[in-house]
Design brief:
Layout lengths: L5 E5 H6 L1 H10 L2 E6 L2 E6 L10 H8 L7 H12 L9
Parallel strand pairs: 1-2
Antiparallel strand pairs: 2-3
Family: Belongs to the phD/YefM antitoxin family.
Protein name: Type II toxin-antitoxin system prevent-host-death family antitoxin
InterPro entries: YefM-like_sf (IPR036165)
Amino acid sequence: MAEHAHREITQRELRNDSGAIMRGVERGDSFIITRNGTPVGKLIPLRRRTFVPRAEAMAAFATAPVLDAEKFRRDIDSTADQDPFSREW
């Protein structure tokens, strides 16, 4: 999705043209809402989850390094008990 610039709209525009503004948000547009010329809020689209086919996900991870789950757990456990302010680890 392409990055869109924030368009300034007044509180009155938001109230009077809410349907058109919401359609813009669904397309990816963002709006800065102003009251008496002062920005008071931002209306931005939420990211939607995108389905990724299994074959595509598997291809993306095909070159990822193999993770030794037991070693990873030991590493996490050994550092979790450390004093974060200590320089000894």
